């Protein structure tokens, strides 16, 4: 559906933002581009809707080389959502969304009815339609931004860090909404983020980029976590999800005291309940050991993940058997295999 063929972008100052990118995004899927700041995610995205032209290589949308399509026509079929919703400040929320169908020739009445439908679709209460953008929270503005991007019913949606400016709790809600929306709409979505947690939650496939605009791994989230292609991916994946690093530890059991310092540091960023021992799982969700209590977490993990004696961090599958074994180990907190 979207295809990058040997795409390179070198800016005039010599910066190589994207380096020989070969990647295919399947129709009807959510594909995530993830990587640290400056690794070429935005540039890659913008070559799809011709906001940036490649230096060499080809970008195809639906089999058509985008260079042969004029930008305005191309962009009618490609919604674009960025970090700042970029709403028109002097128009109401409803009119912000209605503008798109109006511009494509709908009557005012029909356009507004369509806008109301879209606002409902993205989970905004009807009464907010008459407000102005400044009267909405950041999360609500992003929802309006998504509604507006969907207004032309484009088959493709590009989303560049759409939720990054929103606080973490609201962000989780927006992610859930997007997944729900996608189940209904079946768009081809390319979603950019620097947040690996967001990437593995949202992406059906995830492309990991590194500095210099190089794609290092393109895989399903589970594979990325359990079989990182190289040390860069494993440390990137591990930076935000310290326990995942343990899939690289040799052996079957780890005494808490023996957990390498680097890995402890990685875990320090996790939301760990201050007084809880943390059960460490590897990339296959097998328990590997316990980490001692930390006082660095600012909020406890979600209630359903708090277990007597430990906090389970997993991708959501309760591993009853493994857990029971862990909790009944002789020391209560020692090695589990
Ligand atoms: P990301 O979205 O992953 O943070 P970008 O695609 O924005 O990364 O940028 C990739 C690299 O290209 C960075 O080094 C950035 O400074 C550089 N870059 C982006 N836009 C331009 C530009 N217009 N001119 C020169 N360099 C640019
Ligand atoms: Mg960017």
UniProtKB/TrEMBL annotation:
Record's keyword terms, sorted: ATP-binding, Nucleotide-binding, Transport
Residue span, ABC transporter domain: 2-237
Per its UniProt record, what Pfam families does this chain match?
Answer: ABC_tran
PROSITE patterns cross-referenced by the UniProt entry: ABC_TRANSPORTER_1 (PS00211), ABC_TRANSPORTER_2 (PS50893)
Q: Where is this region: Disordered?
A: 284-310
Q: Which portions of this protein are annotated as coiled-coil regions?
A: none
GO MF term list:
ATP binding
Q: Report the InterPro entries cross-referenced here.
A: AAA+_ATPase, ABC_transporter-like_ATP-bd, ABC_transporter-like_CS, P-loop_NTPase
Q: Which SUPFAM superfamilies match?
A: P-loop containing nucleoside triphosphate hydrolases (SSF52540)
| Family assignment from sequence similarity | Belongs to the ABC transporter superfamily.
Query: What's the protein called, per UniProt?
Result: Osmoprotectant transport system ATP-binding protein
Look up and give the organism this protein is from. Streptoalloteichus tenebrarius (strain ATCC 17920 / DSM 40477 / JCM 4838 / CBS 697.72 / NBRC 16177 / NCIMB 11028 / NRRL B-12390 / A12253. 1 / ISP 5477) (Streptomyces tenebrarius)
Organismal lineage: Bacteria, Bacillati, Actinomycetota, Actinomycetes, Pseudonocardiales
């Amino acid at each position: 559906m979207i295809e990058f063929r040997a795409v390179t972008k070198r800016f005039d100052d010599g910066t190589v933002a994207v380096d020989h990118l070969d990647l295919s995004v399947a129709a009807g899927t959510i594909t995530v581009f993830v990587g640290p700041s400056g690794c070429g995610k935005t540039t890659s995205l913008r070559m799809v809707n011709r906001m940036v032209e490649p230096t060499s290589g080809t970008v195809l949308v639906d089999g058509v080389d985008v260079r042969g399509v004029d930008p305005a026509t191309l962009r009618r079929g490609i919604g674009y959502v960025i970090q700042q919703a970029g709403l028109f400040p002097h128009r109401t929320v409803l009119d912000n969304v209605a503008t798109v169908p109006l511009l494509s020739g709908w009557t005012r009445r029909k356009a507004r009815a369509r806008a109301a439908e879209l606002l409902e679709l993205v989970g905004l209460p009807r009464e907010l339609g008459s407000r102005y953008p400044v009267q909405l929270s950041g999360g609500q503005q992003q929802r309006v931004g998504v509604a507006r991007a969907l207004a032309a019913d484009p088959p493709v949606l590009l989303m560049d860090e759409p939720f990054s400016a929103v606080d973490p709790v609201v962000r989780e809600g927006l992610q859930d909404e997007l997944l729900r929306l996608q189940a209904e709409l079946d768009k081809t979505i390319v979603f950019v983020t620097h947040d690996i947690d967001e990437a593995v939650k949202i992406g059906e496939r995830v492309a990991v980029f590194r500095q210099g605009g190089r794609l290092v791994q393109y895989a399903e989230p589970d594979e990325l976590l359990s079989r990182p292609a190289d040390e860069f991916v494993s440390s990137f994946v591990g930076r935000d999800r310290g326990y995942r690093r343990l899939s690289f530890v040799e052996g079957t059991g780890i005494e808490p005291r023996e957990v390498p310092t680097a890995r402890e540091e990685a875990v320090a960023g996790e939301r760990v309940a201050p007084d809880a021992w943390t059960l460490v799982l590897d990339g296959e969700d097998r328990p590997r050991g316990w980490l001692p209590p930390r006082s660095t977490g600012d909020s406890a993990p979600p209630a359903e993940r708090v277990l007597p004696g430990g906090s389970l961090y997993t991708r959501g599958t309760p591993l009853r058997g493994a857990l029971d074994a862990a909790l009944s180990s002789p020391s209560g907190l020692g090695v589990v295999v």
